[in-house]
Amino acid sequence: MVARAPFDFATLRRVVPSPAVLLRLAEKYRTLGELRRARAAGQAVPDRAVFQALAGEFPGCLNELDTLPLDEIDARAAALEGAAAGGPILDWMPWLAGYHALLRAALRIRIRSTQRRDVDDARARDLADDASAHAGEVIDPAFVQAVLRPAGGRIIPVVYARLAVIHGAPAATIKRALFPRGRDDR
């Protein structure tokens, strides 16, 4: 195993989501809008597979479906499409991309370590590498350890804490920007 230097998360502050990522996020909001409109029109609830696919790619998005007003869902879709076309990248956009990626990584880590929450450095590096490949986000062993033994037993605060380090913004600010109506207090 090759020794690695600690990762400097401050360098990620200059990284913004690619146009492709912004478009995927916009498509997520378009889908959430369609689901919300269908529910309001009294249409049948889609198959469970629809929600599983959304949550698999964008963990936490069902919370958005339940809590964000429809006009906010539509506004986010439009803003993301505009950003993908060269418009402004608003603060919440990289936070949102990171939120989904880090939560995807955290869930992967938990699934891959169901037998033991206490892992050695080598296993933490292996889990970090696997989660990085799965989530498309740089994951380090410290994040693995935090996910496996989160304070209060919840991984969402671990995700917000890492976003705060990466982006240099308070975790509470990020949380309010992503989920202004609450419920993501896990």
Distance linking N and C termini:
36 Å
Overall, the morphology is globular
Helix-strand topology string: HHHHHHHHH
The mean pLDDT is 89
Low-confidence stretches: 1-5
**Portion in strands:** under 5%
Look at the helices and sheets and give the structural class.
Answer: mainly alpha
Number of helices: 9
Number of strands: 0
Report helical residue fraction. Answer: 55-70%
Give the C-alpha Rg: 17 Å
Number of domains: 2
What does the model show?
- The protein contains nine helices and no strands.
- The chain is mainly α and 186 residues long.
- The longest helix is centred in the N-terminal third of the chain and has 22 residues, at 19-40.
The gist of it:
The protein has helices at residues 19-40, 48-57, 61-67, 70-84, 92-112, 121-135, 141-148, 156-167, 171-178. By secondary structure, it is an all-alpha fold. The longest helix has 22 residues, at 19-40.
Provide tags for this entry.
single chain; 186 residues; mainly alpha; 9 helices; disordered N terminus
